[in-house]
Specification:
Layout: E1 7-16, E2 21-29, H1 38-48, E3 57-64, E4 70-78, H2 81-87, H3 90-96, H4 106-117, H5 123-129
Antiparallel strand pairs: 1-2, 2-4, 3-4
């Protein structure tokens, strides 16, 4: 599957140190192809902004203009993978194929808490490990 040539223009570029990322609005010009895959956009952005890991670049919200040839969307480029896992929503991490920690159910948390309330000392930790 060979995609045609495309160019990326970053508009409204912001460096956001509190969230450890750079963010921008992407404008993709692709006159010879229908659409450009997010994977190839991420790879091109990673090389352009010298980001070592492709999983730190997240592209979303792509909309193709009527008539084709031009698309717009958003890109978030995190400084490291730990920051991406901390601040990125879980559904976007799943799309990238990154592991998302699963939450313990509400009922299970209550059961563990009630079991621990009846115990003292080191046995409390063992009660939390069950199930």
């Amino acid at each position: 599957m060979s995609e045609g040539k495309f160019t990326i223009r970053a508009k409204k570029f912001i460096s956001n140190p509190l969230l450890a990322r750079k963010q921008c609005v992407l404008e993709v010009i692709h006159p010879s192809s229908g659409n450009v895959s997010k994977k190839s956009l991420c790879e091109k952005l990673a090389t352009a902004y010298k980001i070592s890991d492709v999983n730190c670049v997240h592209v979303f919200g792509m909309k193709t203009a009527f008539g084709g040839g031009r698309s717009t969307g958003f890109a978030l480029m995190y400084d490291n993978l730990a920051a991406a896992k901390k601040f990125e929503p879980k559904h976007r991490l799943k799309r990238k194929g990154l592991e998302v920690p699963t939450k313990v159910g509400r009922r299970n948390r209550k059961d563990i808490r009630h079991r621990q309330a009846k115990l003292r000392g080191k046995k409390k930790a063992k009660a939390g490990e069950q199930k």
